[in-house]
Amino acid sequence: MDATPPQDTAPRGALRHRLAGPCDQSPLSGLLARWVQADCVVETAPGPPSACPPGLAGDVRFPNWLRGALGDALMDGASAEARAGRPCPWRPPCALDVLWGETGTVRRGVPIPRPFVVRVDEPAPGGLRITLSLFGFATDWMEDAAAALVRALRHGVGMGPDGARLPLEPGRRVIRTPGPPPLPTVRAAGADEATLSVRILTPLILRRKSTPVLDPLALLTSLSRRAEGFARWHDTALMVDGEALARAAAALTLEADGLAPPTTWSRTSARQPGRRIPASGVVGRLTLRGPGAALTAVAPLLALGGRVGAGGHAAQGQGRFEVL
Fold it and tell me: Which domains, ranges and CATH numbers included, belong to the chain?
């Protein structure tokens, strides 16, 4: 899927210049080959005083609360400019600016995402496994980010509008560097068709003109836009052929018979304090079915999505999935 990269728009500053003017361009296969990632994995102690409430790992709001606590902790080592929401003048810039600063857009409707995601699992009753993943050249700030994550957990994660905090003591911490995401297996399902399945772990939110949808085009468009944005953190302008993507989506069907009933919740608005924003998404198994060539063409998007998520509120921990 080759195309000429579109014109960029981004706020200025050394970091913003780098994001706006990548030094290379590549198709999706090239981005996967050069993918860089660092994970900080923290497991909290399962007993007092760090025992977490039952079901906390499954609370769809918790990754966003944790994300907010991380942002607060990054303030400690940040420049005055970054603390005020302006580009950091330090060289290199502080971690708050890299992870939390404004990043601009690849093009209209395609933002450059902040270069991290947070995942929460429950490896044992009373404990949590928290994974902070950084991508591309943002991995150079992993040590600062990992230290901030530990501070955030010890200080306590805000649990909603009442200001209550839940302190969590890290019992184990490791930093690892996983390799590029492997391509998923396209499985033959007959003479002329194949399948590729994913398990949605946190609510997937797909919309078209503000209307909830669940179809191949919505899923693949969301993944393609995420890929374009994260490519910039790899100093790369991703070459995307939108027409080829639409043709592949049109050749596929999305089977949703393995889904649970929709999950609904609400979150507060950072820009409009006191406003509650409703949200709804689906979890469970989804299967793309169609010609093997079409599935092979979109398989790299699913491989990348397994690392960065898909759909609305992906930055807040939603749309996380694993390829089966």
Answer: 37-176 (3.30.70), 181-323 (3.30.70.1900)
